[in-house]
Each structure stands twice: as structure tokens, then as C-alpha cells.
Give the backbone structure.
Amino acid sequence: MTQTGKNRSLRMSARAMRWQDATRWMGTTLLLGVASLSVLAVLFIFYFIAREAIPFFLARGFREFFTSTAWYPSAHPPQFGVLAILAGSALVTVGAVTVAVPLGIAAAICLSDLLPFSVRQGVKPVIELLAAIPSVAYGFFALVVLAPLLQERGGALFRGFVWGIGIPLGALAVVMGSGLMAARLPPAWRKRGSVGIGFLLAMAIGWFLRALAARAGGIRVDSGTNALNASLILGIMALPTVVSVSEDALQAAGREIREGSYALGATRSETLLRVVLPAAGSGIAAAVILGVMRAVGETMVVWMASGNAAQIPRPWYNLLQPVRTLTATIAGDMGEADHVTGSERYAVLFAMALVLLVFSFLCNLAGEWAVRRSRRRMSGE
Amino acid sequence: MSEENPHVKAREFSVLYRDRPAVKKVTLSIVRGAVTAIIGPSGCGKSTLLRAVNRMNDLIPGCRTEGELLLDGENIYAPGIDVVALRRRIGMVFQKPNPFPKSIFDNVAYGPRLHGRLTRQELAERVEQSLRRAALWEEVSDRLHTNALGLSGGQQQRLCIARALAVEPEMLLMDEPTSALDPRATTRIEDLIAELRGSYTILIVTHNMQQAARVSDYTAFLYEGDLIEFGPTRDLFTRPREKQTEDYLTGRFG
Amino acid sequence: MRAYYSTRHVLDRAFSGLGYGSVALMALALVALLGPIIGKGLGAYWFRGTVEFRLFVLERFHRGNAKKIGIEHREAMRAREPFWAVLRAFEAEMESDSALRRRVGKDYHRFQSHIRELLGPIPGDSPPLLMRQQYGQTRWDRALVKRHQALHIEEWDYGDGTGMGVRVWKPRRLLYAGTALEPAFDLLENHLEAMLRPRWTWYGRFLTDESFDAHFFGGIWAEMLGTLCLTVFAMLVATPIGVLSAIYLSEYAPEGKLIHLLRLFINTLAGVPSIVFGLFGMAFFIHALNVTPSKSVLAGSFTLALLVLPTLIRASEEAIRAVPQAYREAAFSLGASRWHTVATILLPAALPGILTGTVISLGRAAGETAPIIFTAAVSMGEPLRWGRLLTAPTPALPWNLYNLCTEHAAVDEIRHVQFGMALTLVALVLLLNMAGIFLRARVSRQLKV
């Protein structure tokens, strides 16, 4: 009934064995070869960027590149001071992180601990969509919608921002302050005392906010394409990364420690702030690092929204002035430098790319380290 | 059923995970055509021993063996053994029914397609024959080309048995085949084992002592990787020779 | 004590509010971003088209009912007749009154050019060369802007002392009070509809029409085609590499240093800024390998393939690892080899997951701009042709969106094209992503064994 006899031997002939070993080795090696293409790609990227960049540094040294703000690549003789551009990249990145990190972590907390599961299932795809929108569309929005708005109604916008942030924060301060201060009064006075203190506090804060809003409303934006515009949009772009990575970290912190904290009578905010966030710390650090990488490496948004002026704003934190970043410089200047392949003007862009590459590589290592640390912590070693 | 010509014979056989022994120097003979049960508390190495017989442990990194495990007198851990041929001769059924996410027909035909060059006609016959032997033909003959994951748990497990039989093995390894099933499905599987007895050598791991008593001719009791006692099922259950066996059977541990 | 407790609880509430607020803010950002892009972008497809639009479509694309459009056009011309008559009368007046000529001659030229932009060539003009001067405004919304410019004089007021001028629109009519041109302003104000005959138009061919005269007319087919070719070829290159790498990582690689190293490099590749990919693509594929002498779809696709490779590897690996271990054991127990198990069991089961990764990567590749700037994209150009699909440079949606809204000679005139392009790009990417998310949701339901 079978084409194979009952007493088939299990032993293979030497030839069959060699054949089997050879095919297996070849298959595995082939697959390893394909998998190594990524390694090859990274090495090639480093090599081909460094091949142009290192001769540039050898010829002109590091001093001018890193310490001069004179960026005149097409002058005679050309000047390649990149400090202002580095500062622009840094400023825009810091701005973006300021937007993305607090907002992102708060949103991650909301997603992992506050919203019911079904809502979370709905919100997560939306965050993914936010991440999927092409950067040029963000840049287009920054240039065509946000920049004119900032330029024409900047004051009103800032005033609205002050009120929008100030009122909830102020209300919170009033409630907390009156509660805390009334607790020191003798018991009979507490109720009336807290109302009185609250009223006084509300008056003071309201007056302060009005002054601040008037100040903000008076700000004039000379150019809608500036560091603030780029930072805002970059921040929104980096947001999904920060949210999803920190949400994963918060989830990974586990239910046990939350329940442990609740069992001791802690409120939700206390549990989250004192127990969950510290436990998820490294994961959140990784989220921040990834957000920074996204902001530093982004090209189109900064090219379109930052104004592209190679200058350090005065004072340096003045986000309303145009700046220029590394990525935008590479994108914008290569068009002109391409004709002079091999010239210093061409090489300096590779030198900038090398700076970017090394920075993102270091960020990557740091992120990896943070992730591994958090994993080790979670597994309790 | 001669005990002088065992189908599988373990001689001082050990399995080690990263130098930690899971099965320690076991020596036993499995009789051709009989049902042999391996019982013991969880973590005693009974699954490891079972999976050693068709070298499924090869897949686990850091796992190695010592001693000999002979199939028809041939050491299956000797160098140059064709593992594919070995697994063709020894079928396996797992704890949880694990049909592939394919049609019922494709599930059963997976093995024959792998090994033989059967015509379409022969393949269809082989599938029907295997499903009949697994007592599933009547239930699925009209929907052979629907997804196997649509079957009930018990049907899925019988399908997995049919899938194993379709390769025409001499021996079946069953790793707690009814632990994920309800009592009625369990009964059907046990009936099936009784029908297959004689045509196939069956080695079954179970943590259910009643099941071992019901279906097996021989029983091995494993504890912490040691083979404590091995013999005809009736003898072992009624007159255990070892104290530990008795303790286990009477429910004092495990 | 109670006060202390209540403070704690207010804090707790405030904390929750912060969380909800931030999620709401994100939703708001999404709406604020997509709102204008969708709203104004639809304007490229659906707008009030004038008779000039219908005439243009008939003459350049040979679409539309020639007879009906002919009749309509003649009627529009007849409605413009009184307006031309007023212009002629005023020109005659200027001819005889040199003081008037000195006073308004320059402004009348400006007025005339606004009218040409609004209605097309003035009778008696020599036939213009540029297509944008051969037709009047094809869109009613643009026509209204042009009419406003014709009716008003733009002046700058530097009165507030900051040195920053404020734009003021002064009625032009005042300048021409008492001259023969005065009726022209009433005609423009009240009878423009008869002259241009706006009608709601669905212009779905915006997607598939070629553009004329640097996007003043027509659609975005060249960009669409370029983006499609770039992304599809990129995925054709990247998908096999990605899937094979994932198979190696999940099924073959021994645990230990090697796999760790591979992962480090894959993560590094994922972290390389996109502009650096662009530089590398140019330096490697074009200058070093010389796949084509200059920018081409091929060079761009290779660069994009490298960019999406890490995403693809991760998605595929996740999909393969998600296949239950039980399937592998069953296949091995039946005597299947490792490769056979991968080919017959694992890949089919992981296929939807791999497809999800592919579709999402496709969206990513379609939206990336920086890597193709130096490797494939040109700002203006013909749509790709069959014979040179791979070796020619091409316009592409993201790059031309950038180009049209920053470097185009008449940025403000073609806002609708920019928004239409942005909408098309965003819709393309989001649809691909939604398809991916949908697929994944189905997979996760199916794989629950």
C-alpha cells in the first residue's frame, strides 16, 4: 500500500548528506547575504558621505566650519561657516521638542491610562495617520496657511494662545491655592476663607493674564516663515512618534505596579506620576530621542517654513526670526552646487550631511541603550 | 507483540537543555503495535522524551542528547540520520489542535505532497483513506475545500491525526492530544486510539491517569526526568512496585 | 483634612484634563492641517468653471460638446461687446485729450492688463504667445480676484510710522470719474457673469490631464505618473529584500551577536535622515555606479527602496513571528524542511501582515521628497513615456508641490493647483495607510488561533 517499504533505513548516503549540507549552507548564506544588504547600505552611506566630507575637513580644518557664522559659499573666496546653520537646526529642534514632548507624553498617558480600550483602538489609527502624512504636505501647510496667518494675525494668535493656556492653568491655581491656604485657617473660618482667598487669587491671576495677553497681542511678526512656524509644525510631526513609543513604554510598565499603588490609596495622577512614569522612564527617554531624530532629520518642513536665513537670531531664543537648518541647506544648495561636483561648495554639503549622520547614529545608539535598559528593568534584573 | 523486537528502544537516554538534564538516563522498550502511555506530574520531562523520538527537540537551541534511542535497532541520534525520513516514519499529534490555515483537503494532503509524487487521483484517495481512519470522513466529506479552522476543536484534532496518518507512518506520537478538548471530543479521540492500536505503534503523553488506564497497554511513569516505573498498564495501576508511583496514582502529589 | 483631600482630587482631575486636552489638541492639529488641504484641494476638482475653461478643454483636450460650447462662447462674446465698446470710446477720448492721457495713461495700461487676465485678449490685440494670455480666467473664484484688481488701485499706506506699509485698495472708478471709461466699472461689477458664464464643474480629469503652460491650465498627470513609477519600482526592489531579510532574522539567524548586529544596522538605516539618503543616492547610484548619467526614475527608486527597507523588514519580521509556533511544529513533524515550511506555511500565513507593511511603505515612499530631489525629480517636464520609464527624470507629486508653492513664477495664481496636488498626495498616502490599517485589523482577527 505504500511506495516506501517498512524497512527503509534512516541513514543517508554520504553523498546525500554532503548534498543536504551544501544546499542548507548555501540557502542560509544566501539569506544572510540578503539580510546583510542593510548593513552594506549603512556602510556605503557612511563611506560615500565621508568620502566627500573628510577631504573638505582636511583641507579647511574644523575651526571655520564649527565656529564661524559667515556662510557665503558662492563668494570669492567662499566662506563656509556653519555655526549659524547648526544653531538654526538646534533652535528649531529644541522648539519642536518643546511642543512634542509634553504634549506627546500627556497624550500617551491619556491613551494608556485614561481612555477606555475601545476609544484607544479608535485613536491609535488616527495617530498613525498623523504620522503618515507626507512632510511636504506639512511644509505646504506651514508655508501657505500658517505663515500668512502668523504674519497678518500673529498678535491675535498669541493673545488667544495666552488666554487658551492661561485660563485652565489659572483656574487650577485658584482652586489649589485657595484650598491649600484655607487649610491653615482655623476650622470655623475655612469655608468662607477659601472663597475669599480664591476670589483674590482669581483677581490677581486675571490681571496678570490680561497684562501678558496685551504684551503678546502687541508682538509683530515680520516674516511668517520663521523658527516658530517650523518648530510648531515639526513638533506636530514628531508628536506621533513620541506618543506611540511612550505609550508602548507606559503599557509595558504593567498593571501590577499600578494596582499596587492604587491599593495604597494613591489617586490616579499620583500613581502615574510617582510610580508609572519613573518605571517607564527609559522607554520615554527613547521616545524623546526618536522625536529629536525626526525633527533634526526633517527636510521639507524646515526648508519651507523656517525662512532660510543663515543667521543666529538676536536674542538667540527669538523664535520669530527666520533661521536656516542643515537639512534645508543641503536641499537648497545642492541644486546650485551640483554643477560643480567635486568643488568645495559641493563637499561642504557632504560635510553637513556627515554631521547629521553622526548625530543621528549617536541618537540611535542612545535610544537603543535606553530601550534595552527599560527592557532589563521590566524583566526585573 | 514480541518484547524481544521492540519498535523503539531507549538505552541510557538523556536529554539536556543547556546542560540541565530534562530526561535522565532512561532505558525502556516500546512494543510494536501497542499503545504506550507516559504519565507523570507536569515538568517531569514526559513531553521532552516524546519529542525526542522524532527529534523535534532539534528545533530548540541548546538542546542535546546522550545515550541511544533506537528505532528498529538504528540509533536515530547517530550522525548521518535523515531527519526528514525519520519524521515520515513517526507522525505526531500535538496538545492543541494545530491545523494549518488551509482547506481540510490541503491539510491532509500536505504530507503526501511533501514526500511522494502522487497523481491527483492517488492523492484524493490517500486523503479520503486518512480521513476515514481518523473517523472524520463522514463529517467533512462534503466540505473538503473549506477552511480547516472552521471545524470544532475535536474535529480539528482528528484532522491533525488524519494529517499525520496521511504520511503513512509506523508510529504516532501524541502529546496530550485531548487536554484542549471537551469530554465528548476526548471520548472520540480515545475511541480512535483504540481503533488505531495494532496498525500503529502509539506513544501518548497524558497527565490524565484515567486516560492512560483506558487507552494504553503499557505505561511509563516519569518523575523529574527519571523513569520510575515501566510495565503493562494493568500491573502498574493495580500493583505499583515503586512507592513514588503509588503516591502519584493515589494523588498524593502531582 | 477635607481641604487637603479635595486639593488632591482637583489635581487628579486636572491631570486627567491635561491628558484629554492633549489628545484633543492632536485631533485639532489633524483637523487644522487636513481641513484647508481637503477644503481648498477639492477646489481643484470641483469649482465654478467659466466659458473660458470649457473652451480650453475643448481646444486642448478635444472634450466637450463643440456645438454647445460654440454657442455659449458666442453668447459670452456678445455680452462682452458693450464693455469693449466702452474701452474703444475711452481710447478715442484719450486720443483727443492729451491732458487725460498724461493723467491716466499709465494706469489705463495697468487696467488693460487686468482686463486681459480676466477676459482674455482684447479685440484688436495681436495673438499672444503664452497660453495663459490666450484665455481669460477659467475659474470664477480667480475671476473675482482679477475683477477686484481691475476695479481697485493698490496703494501702500506708511502712515503708522513703523516703516511697514499697510495695503489699501482704492476704487479705480474715482480716477476715471467723468470720463468715457466710467460705465466700464458698472459693467464689470454687474455683468461679469454674463461675460464669463460660470457654472459648477466637476473636473475629475485634473488627475489625468497633462498640464499646459506651467500648471496654469490642465492637470497633474505628469506628477502622478512619476510618483506611481517611483514608488512601484522602489517597492519592487525593496519588497523581496525586505521579506528575505525578515525570513532570515526570524527563522534562520542564530540567537546572539550576529542578529544583534544586524538589528543595530537596520535601526541605523531607519534613522538616517532622508536628505542624507538623497545625497547618498546621488553620490552612489548616479555618480559612482552610473546607473544613469543623470537623474532618473531608476536612481530615485533605488534610493527610496533603501529608505523603506527597514520599515519593510520590521513589518515582515513581525508578521512572520506572529505566525503561531504550532504551525511550524506541525510542518516539521510531517517531515517538512525549514525552507519548505517557510514557503508553504509561514509566508502564506504572514502574507496579509507583509502586505500591510508593503502598503504602508508604499505610502511612505510616495510622500518622501528629500531623497528624490537629487536623484529623480525635475520641476517641469513631460509625463514619462513607455520606452524611457526607468531612465528618464520625472516630475513627482511631492517635489512639484514644493516647487509650485515656492519657486513658481506666479505662486499666487495657481494656488488651486497647489492645493489640488497636496490633496491628491495626502489622499494617496492616507488611503494606502488606511488600507494597511484595515488589512492589519483583519489579520489580527484571523490569526487568533
